[in-house]
Amino acid sequence: MNHDAPDSAELTEEQKIYREGLRQAQQPPESPLGILRHLGPGLIVAGSIVGSGELIATTKTGAEAGFWLLWLILIGCVIKVFVQVEFGRYAISTGTTTLAAMDEVPGPRVKGRGNWLVWYWLLMFLASLGQLGGIVGGVGQALAISVPLTDDGREFNAYVDTQTRLPVKQAEVNRYQILYADDPANVQVQERLRTLRRELQVIEADVAKLPAAVPTAYDAQLWAAIIAVITAAVLMMGRYGFIQFFATLMVAAFTCVTVVNVAMLQDNEAWRITSREFLMGLQFRLPPTDNWNTALATALATFGIIGVGASELVVYPYWCLEKGYARYTGPRNETKAWANRADGWLRVMRWDAWLSMVVYTFATVAFYLLGASILGRTGLNPGKSDMIRTLSEMYVPVFGEIAQPLFLFGAFAVLYSTYFVANASHARTFSDALRVLGMGATTEHGHRRLVTLFSGVFPLVCLLFFVLFSLVYEEDPAAMVLISGVTQAVMLPMLAGAALYFRYHRIDRRIAPGRLWDIFLWLSAGGMLIAGAWALWTHLAKVIGAS
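Structure (tokenized):
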């Protein structure tokens, strides 16, 4: 094939596409500053990660398990990056989308309609829409607390605020009594205890005045509907650069607030995290409590969605393609120039993946420690219609009266960034899934039109999931998030197997990783297999036990 033929009119369509690919190829940056300027896909994924996984599922795990499962949370953040990089390697070197690549994995298939892996992804995809329903429900709760739309909403806020303050104040009194039980003569401690007991008496009196029945309000649903409609409109007009900027800004804002909160918590004697508690969480042990199986089930569901969960592993290569890594590499050929470009852009992608991992791991650990130190010690467990309000209590010991408005800003930022980015990602993956299943657009223009259409449809579908789920589970966003977490945890070993298949049967040998990387890739795959199987077993045992 003569790719340098001077007369373009004589070229075949395949040759024209090849030549256009060579024209778009670019040399990769080599300096750290140049590499940093080309990062982006990982930050978008981080924008969808630091939300349901961290703010809801991770803190819920801390509330149920205390500090004991910190080790599992850390593993969940780090272990999947090796599989993530392999998916990115295959996409960049071939220009193949994730679902098209998954369709190449051996196993049962419906001829012309996808294989077993693609069909399970569809099941997980539906569950992830439910997860986003829980997310938009959380956003609705945050706004309903901040700006109630009805008198019923204001009455509901006053009721739940009072109920939630009681266990927090009781736990603070108990902590001081335990910490200073051997120092009854300490004047300052005794004065502080008297103040706390007076505050507790006031709250108890307020609780006694509350009506027997919880007031009914639908402000959260109204706000969720408003947010869903706005998101649909923005996404239909949005572009990659705007999505990247928005996700980065929102995640950075609340991550900073949370890390500051954890640091300042160390100055509060009642709530500080001791070195013994922190080290206890790294001992690879299960919680020594009667409900350890419930905490473990929550933790394993959380494992599926923290860090790069199964959804993010599938989505990440799409953002790499949209960023241009594969386009800049150029069409694969046998030249040394292509191998050098591919290796350079793969280096950029690895920086992108690992730096984003540092960001979301830092945030995840901070959320887990807050959940364990505040919610775990008070017996509060975020869920149902008071989920956001319960979570806001994690910020009260440090920020006092401004804790709730500060947290509500943060909760809106991090949850909405997840909702925004995940819907943008879903539009791209589902449009491609239809193409793989032989039911979607066959041209790039048609694919883009479907992406725009689904960008407007999916936020509304997520809202519908939230409304319908509210009728069955009493408006419990946390339950919706954890159900999706289980389906994603089960898919993790499937994706790990696919990554191994790409590594040994599809990757160009010139850009294949070394032996040390292979060892870590196999360890990652083994860990994901154990976590997925364990999550399925634990969830089934929980369901059987409940029935």
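The longest helix spans residues 336-378. Residues 1-8 have pLDDT under 50 and may be disordered.
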